[in-house]
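Throughout our pipeline, every protein is held as a single compact record rather than as scattered files. Nothing more is needed to write down the fold, since each code stands for a local backbone conformation. The record that follows is passed on verbatim for readers who wish to inspect the format.
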Amino acid sequence: MAALSKIFFEPFVYNNCYELGHTWTPNCWKAFFDTFLYAFKESFKTYVGFYLATSAFKKKTKQYYLSRMLPHVLRSSLFLSANACLFMAAFCVIGKLYGKFNFTTLGFFPALIASFLAILIERKQRRSLLAVYVTNLASEYLFNSFSARGYIKPIKGGEVLLFMIVSATYMYFFRKPNGLEKSEHTAIKFFVGASELTNEDHWQATEESKAKHALHRVKQLVGLSKYVNKIIALVKDGPRHKRCLHPNSCFSYLTQGAIRNFVIGYAIQGAVKLLGALPKLFHEPQALWKAARHRDNFGCAAFLGGYNAVFRLTCCLLRWLTGGDSDAHMAIAGCLAGSAMLFYPSISVALYLFWKLLESLYSKGIQAGYLPRVKHFDIFIYSVSTALLFHSAVFEPHLMRPSYWSFLQRLTNQRASSLHHQLTRLSVHFLIM
């Protein structure tokens, strides 16, 4: 206990906030406003893209784009900017009040104060989403930190195993009335289709119409309509179990979903790679071509395509073997389909979906009366998780998710590493027991 008290609370750095934090200016107020301006500029760019993408996915009306989107972008940008500049403010205030810093006041406590005040600016509807997101990042950092210190031993393929469990749970609730939140239900339906649902005939008909139109365009382009029609007819006329809800053969059902998701996966990851390659285009003309054929694109495509194929194959196979259908079949299919993550291992995706699932189960527990409702729990979770992330940025940024560390650097105009570099220069090192 005495050792922990010494690590966490005894002072070990007597330098002031200028020498450690805002090294580009000795003025605390200037450092505060500099941080805000850089953060707001980067936040605005980030949230414009974010709201455009999510609005397009949710098929928002023209009225939303004209009247509501800009206020939402500005408010979210202000929230994120406040989180950055309030950290600097809290850091300076603590330094001036105590004249020294310790393990907790260099990162965790200033970030805790800043995160708590900043999240109050953001809309209530987004607080739980942000809490899940930063909890995902914080848990990944803690896992890396404990692994680096030898407290836990990573399991090879552990992210795939976790994803299989999460996938099984999600699929178990997928078909139940009010089993999942609307956003989760819509997302799963987008990737696996609606043929496993009994009340989604209109949606399925719409999707089939879109697929037929796309196929017709392909046949026109290649000029092989006659031969393609014969192949399609052969595939569609295969066997189908009487309990299957899809209109054509089971083989047609499987291949159609697999091909569709393969294309979606390649397009999603390819778009991310292409956007990342744009800044390099002027001095590296081949950057776009390299991004378009990056192996991650094929990995993501194989992951989504394989997931859909294994899920549909398992559902149909279980109906053929048992002669019936049940929610347990959905769970088994979801678990086996989760193994497709072997093509695209991602601890980030697995952890995010895990925490999102826990949030959904907690909400269901509250609605059923089994669990208590903790007021402002999302604010608490966001504040603590973000404080851990800022703390890791100060002491061990190499254990953070690289993409988030890069984001913090952009948010602060490459000044997020200033405190860590100063501590390294002063040869201040710590070892958490």
Q: What stands out?
A: Residues 199-207, 427-433 have pLDDT under 50 and may be disordered. The chain has 18 helices and no strands. The radius of gyration is 25 Å. The CA atoms of residues 183 and 276 lie 28 Å apart.
